[in-house]
């Protein structure tokens, strides 16, 4: 199965979500989004820049975390959705960009987000593997080297076959009974 390239980048997707929220009453949102006033959106990328903080806030992001993701840190940031104290303790502080966190104590009004499209095409640059896979409709073309996964699958299959063979062999007790 060939994978498709992303249609929009995270910034554009966030603007689209905020635009949807502007045109729909909050009761059509999930309960958690309704409680927060809007859908919480955390930017996740290796290329977020502190100097573009205002752009992220204006687009409607509520927080951010940089890749590679520290999942314990992500869990703490996500807890800020339901805990005001946790959210406050993880607010943006100049010079601590690498930690990730929340931009504001509370979520801004849904109408505060700038949902106007920008002049750039709405797609992030695809990886080399995505370009190769997209250029070919051959499902055998892979985006990434998955030889480790294949080796692990082969090992597991051999182990399962060995267990099945051992369980189907007659035991000494079975031989005496016949």
Which band does the percent of strand residues land in?
5-15%
CATH topology of the largest domain: Rossmann fold
CATH level 1 name of the largest domain: Alpha Beta
* Residue windows where pLDDT falls under 50 for at least 5 positions: 137-149
Mean pLDDT: 76
The helix/strand class is mainly alpha
What's the helical proportion of residues? 40-55%
Give me the count of strands: 3
| Total discrete domains | 2
- Overall spatial form: elongated
Corresponding CATH architecture of the largest domain: 3-Layer(aba) Sandwich
From the alpha carbons, calculate the radius of gyration and give it in angstroms. 25 Å
How many DSSP H or I helices? 8
Largest sheet: 3 strands, mixed
H/E element order: HHEHEHHEHHH
How is the largest sheet built, in terms of strand order? 1-2-3
How far apart are the termini? 51 Å
List keywords for this structure.
178 residues; mainly alpha; Rossmann fold; 3 strands
Descriptive notes:
By secondary structure, the protein is mainly alpha-helical. It has two domains: 10-132, Rossmann fold, CATH 3.40.50; 146-177. 44% of the residues lie in helices and 6% in strands. It has helices spanning 10-23, 31-36, 53-59, 71-79, 84-89, 128-135, 147-168, 172-177; strands at residues 42-45, 63-66, 101-102. Strands 1-2-3 form a three-stranded mixed beta sheet, covered by helices on one side. Strand 1 (42-45), helix 3 and strand 2 form a beta-alpha-beta unit.
């Amino acid at each position: 199965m060939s994978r498709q390239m992303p249609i929009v980048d995270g910034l554009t997707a966030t603007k689209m979500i905020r635009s949807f929220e502007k045109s729909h009453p909050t009761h059509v949102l999930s309960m958690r989004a309704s409680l927060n006033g809007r859908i919480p959106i955390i930017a996740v990328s290796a290329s977020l820049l502190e100097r573009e903080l205002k752009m992220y806030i204006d687009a409607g992001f509520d927080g951010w975390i940089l890749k590679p993701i520290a999942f314990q840190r992500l869990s703490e940031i996500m807890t800020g959705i339901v805990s005001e104290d946790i959210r406050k303790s993880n607010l943006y502080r100049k010079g601590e960009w690498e930690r990730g966190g929340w931009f504001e104590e509370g979520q801004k009004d849904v109408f505060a987000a700038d949902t106007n499209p920008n002049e750039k095409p709405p797609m992030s640059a695809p990886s080399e593997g995505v370009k190769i896979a997209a250029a070919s409709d051959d499902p055998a073309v892979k985006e990434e080297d998955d030889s480790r996964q294949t080796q692990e699958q082969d090992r597991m299959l051999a182990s399962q076959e060995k267990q099945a063979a051992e369980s189907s062999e007659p035991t000494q007790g079975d031989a005496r009974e016949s």
